[in-house]
UniProtKB/TrEMBL annotation:
NCBIfam families: YtfQ_transport. GO terms for cellular component: cell envelope. This is Sugar ABC transporter substrate-binding protein. The lineage of its organism: Bacteria, Pseudomonadati, Pseudomonadota, Gammaproteobacteria, Enterobacterales. InterPro entries: Peripla_BP_I, SBP_2_dom, YtfQ_transport. Keywords: Signal. It is found in: Cell envelope.
Length: 312
């Protein structure tokens, strides 16, 4: 009988099924949808129960979801913070409830870094730099007026991607950002803002390149460029970040030029860190970095083929 009991207990200890609450930004882009899909499959692989709350890109919804996860007594909370400020109060409540918090794909600005265990994120400044460096090389010393479609106002990734691109073109006076506005990471807003840029700039003839902080806004911009009778990828170059399938399809059609790939698997590394922490108390590094790479038209087909296995 004792053998049976000890076997049962040890078995239970090994297969502890964790419950994680995930306060997701929303479903504003193809990349975001893939991130949610991958989070579900990564949880299933580990036998973890994942509860996902769609914040519809509103911080108050995300905070409500975190409060509800605390009330449910989940084992850990994941947050993809839509903006980088305003998180201290609810994170203090999670800390008081002794529930570890992981940040996925976006960062927050808090004085007390113990309010979260780790952030899984790309280097978003580097992502913007990769696009800027590509443009500098591609355009040489020809004059190039750039319009910029920024991500969500106040999102860490938008602030960082703006900085990285601006730093990369800083030493090249022939390249100028003539207009910059938020398209909120969505295709429809990206198209709308690009239409206004085109109207304001001699029906787009003054514009040499559009830098979009994500592919979905770039795809919206490409539609706007075509509707203005111009050729995206030729009359107006494009550079954007994420690596969703449609941007590689646009590249194959010669309508997009440069792309930086962002993995949608932000949850996997957080689950690994959580399990390790629960097993032996190991604290993960504060920042768990994911890689960013530049892709151009010749690699579009191989990138497109790869996407099926990445949650798209
Ligand atoms: C980046 C992520 C961004 C994506 C967009 O880490 O926060 O949010 O680039 C998404 O597609 O809206």
């Amino acid at each position: 009988l004792t053998t049976l009991i000890s076997a049962t207990f040890s078995g239970a200890a090994l297969a502890e099924n964790l419950t994680v609450g995930f306060s997701q930004v929303g479903s504003e882009s193809g990349w975001r949808a893939a991130e949610t899909t991958v989070a579900k499959s990564e949880a299933a692989k580990r036998g973890i129960t994942l509860k996902i709350a769609d914040g519809q890109q509103k911080q108050e919804n995300q905070i409500k979801a975190v409060r509800s996860f605390i009330a449910q007594g989940v084992d850990a909370i994941f947050i993809a913070p839509v903006v980088q400020t305003g998180w201290e109060p609810v994170l203090e409540e999670a800390k008081d409830a002794k529930i570890p918090v992981f940040l996925l794909d976006r960062a927050i600005t808090v004085k007390d870094k113990s309010l979260y265990m780790a952030v899984v994120t790309a280097d978003n400044v580097y992502e913007g730099k990769l696009i800027g460096d590509w443009l500098v090389k591609d355009i040489g010393n020809k004059p190039c007026n750039v319009v910029e479609l920024q991500g969500t106002v106040g999102a860490s990734v938008a602030i960082d991607r703006k900085k990285g691109f601006a730093d990369a073109i800083a030493g090249h006076s022939n390249i100028k950002i003539i207009r910059s506005q938020s398209g909120d990471f969505t295709r429809s807003k990206g198209k709308e803002v690009m239409e206004s840029f085109i109207k304001a700039e001699n029906n787009g003839k003054n514009i040499c390149m559009v830098y979009a902080h994500n592919d979905d806004m770039a795809i919206g911009a490409i539609q706007a460029i075509k509707e203005a009778g111009l050729k995206p990828g030729k009359d107006i170059l494009t550079g954007s970040i994420d690596g969703v399938p449609d941007i590689y399809r646009a590249m194959l059609a010669g309508e997009a030029n440069a792309n930086v790939e962002l993995t949608p698997n932000m949850a996997g590394p957080a689950f690994d860190a959580l399990e390790k922490f629960r097993k032996d108390g190991t604290m993960p590094p504060k920042i768990i970095k994911t890689e960013s790479r530049l892709y151009l038209q010749p690699e579009a087909q191989s990138q497109l083929d790869k996407k099926k296995g990445m949650g798209y």
